[in-house]
Amino acid sequence: MIVSGERWREFEDDILKTDLTIPESALHLLSVVIGTDVREPASAKTILAAKRWRSSLTRIRLEQSIANLAWNLTGRGTIWAVTQLMKHEMGGEVPSQYHMGVGFLGMDVAVIIPKVRTMVNQADKVIMSPFKQTAFVTIPQDGRVLPGQIAKFARRSGVDELFQLELVRRKRYSMDLVGPRGCTVRTKHNEGLKELDGLAMLREAYFAGFLSNRLSPLAKRVLETYVERMQEYKPKPAIAGALSATLGKDAPSLFRAYCDLVGCEREKSVKEWFRLLAFTAIQRVRGIGTR
Predict the structure, then answer these.
(1) Which domain holds residue 196?
(2) Do the domain assignments include residue 185?
(3) CA distances from 171 to 62, 69, 98 (A)
(4) 173 in Cβ contact with 62 (< 8 Å)
(5) What SS3 state is found at 190?
(6) CA angle 195-274-228, nearest 5°?
(7) Considering the domain boundaries, does residue 48 fall inside one?
(8) Helix H segments across the chain?
(9) Beta bridge partners of residue 113, listed in sequence order
């Protein structure tokens, strides 16, 4: 699929400064998480097994059972406690629930997911470049995060995302517990440039010949195949998965996209499902890739 578009030209300087590598260390960690080498394309047999597993009733029941258990045991109480602590720390102001759109490049459907607000109002407009406004680059001291230690704890621990368990628990559920993360997308309530815009412009720049000399063979394969694969697999955004089990929010953009592909093609049984969930929990506890 050849892409034509000129939006990327407005951001040439940002693109030149963006880390477009897929680090070998990250690929090694991802291989450990999945339990097999992910550097080469998945075989047709593996992809077929992954498709069958991801649509199986066993997987759906597993996802909803674990999400329901987590919500009832810890979700409600933890969200209430953190919200009250943030209210106390901020002098009485209660953080509101925040909604953001998440989807995949090449798919028209976006899922609106709820989070505990841990960032200032209009945070998405503080940095307008889609390569800096999002987690495409590391922001060591992110001024968009609310003041105080509780908001930082909620982001590091993933407590701000517990509302999303509700989207997994529902009969017609719109999120997965484990799977590809997806990209933030623009919505009518949140119109700043998002991760999906950044990835789309990277593809535009690549097919225009702007990035050819800067990309590894694997990075080129990601840009060449991502849209077609997402249209084929039709994944749901997930709470845990390949990205959060490895580098998390501070991963380079093309590694993030590759994690979406790996999540669709390599999770082929309950074994990989539990490994992805367990490694995500470990990384959360360690505070890896969170801000």
Answers:
(1) 69-268+276-286
(2) yes
(3) 13, 15, 23
(4) no
(5) strand
(6) 40
(7) no
(8) 12-17, 24-34, 44-54, 57-70, 76-89, 149-157, 165-169, 195-207, 217-233, 253-265, 270-286
(9) 100
State pLDDT tens for residues 134-158: 444 344 455 566 667 777 777 776 7
List strand residue ranges (DSSP E) for the chain, in order: 97-103, 111-116, 176-178, 183-185, 238-240
- Tokens describing residue 261: 């592909």
Beta bridge partners of 187: 190
In Å, how far from its chain's centre is CA 174? 15
DSSP 155: H
Total tally of structural domains belonging to the chain: 1
Could you please report the per-residue DSSP string of 103-118? E-TT-S--EEEEEE--
pTM of the model: 0.84
Q: Nearest CA to 280 among 59, 23, 113, 34?
A: 34
pLDDT tens for each residue of 233-273: 999 999 999 998 998 766 888 999 999 999 999 999 999 99
Whether residue 235 lies inside any domain: the answer is yes
